[in-house]
Amino acid sequence: MYQYYCLNPISETGLQLFDEAYKKSDAIENSDAILVRSAKMHDIQLPETVAAIARAGAGVNNIPVKEYSEKGVVVFNTPGANANGVKELVLAGMLLASRDIVGGIEWVAQQKDRDDIDKLAEKQKKQFAGCEISGKRLGIIGLGAIGAMVANAASKLGMEVYGYDPYISIDAAWNLSRTIKHSKSLDEIYTQCDYITIHVPLLDSTKKMINKDAFARMKEGVVILNFARDLLVDEEALIEALETGKVKKYVTDFANPVVAGREGILVTPHLGASTEESEENCAVMAVKEIRDFLENGNIKNSVNFPNCDMGTCVAVGRIAITHKNIPNIISQITQILGGEGLNIADMTNKSKGEYAYTLIDLESTASREALDELGAIEGVAKVRVVK
Prior knowledge:
Strand content: 15-25%
Oligomer: single chain
Mean pLDDT: 96
Helix content: 25-40%
Number of helices: 13
Shape: elongated
Distance between the termini: 13 Å
Low-confidence stretches: none
Order of helices and strands: EHEEEHEHHHEHEHEHEHEHEEHEHEEHE
Structural class: alpha/beta
């Protein structure tokens, strides 16, 4: 019997995919896996029993990935599962920034008691006029699942789309419309585009990438959209750019005291993936990842360990080992198994940066002594019996 614990409410559409071999736990203790959305896990004491964390979403900033990697805990995310929901909100953000729809709605609400509101509206509507997005240039920084969907949708709306992503995947490239112009530098995005939307992960290299220098290179009256991570934008430089008119509007999904209620900034309360469909899609993907890992030892969409798939185990036993990506570990593993008289039926080893993963099918069951010896190898973080 496997036990899982939910740190946040997870869609029942996903949880229903757990069968009778799984039990939803009321406490984190003794859990084999944890499902999480936005709850911060940095201060949580993780039990030794936990083998996997599944984030029902793409970003993992709320999870101490490095710490869990050292413990051999596999951290999954669900890339692309909420992409359509975010894409639609980005398009809505462009429209809200182009035409003063919010101002118009607020004005009508203020005049609700006037009998002549219809006539007054005809006189006042010009103050809420704006521009159309068709024919305008949109620059997209990051052409992953969300960026690619935004690019294709914006192109269909008549926008001239420029995309920048030096690390674009083959799948993403194939999914892009042929109308998308591939920019070779950020400078082309900054100097040519009327709208710029950011879709990159938050890394040391991307933190505050939209800074004073970037704003200086942009067109006058540019609209910036940020539905990725708030720290991608240097907000002090942003405020200055708004005050000088360099930036016409800033639309963000991340509320904080700097941007909330400030003129020229439209802030939504982290609504990007807050759709019924997105939550269901993320939950379904997260549960499938957890099940395949716990039942078969397979890894897909992990942010800290490599993808690894040996299918369903047909051998007598299977063990999974998370460890450091350093020399001589594999030879030590095979030596211990051979010394215990255990014959290897199949084996795969994959690495990802500092960490690696080894999945081994055995023709007989590994003893407790053999497992303890494997766990004692320097660099090995966790040894788990899959079957």
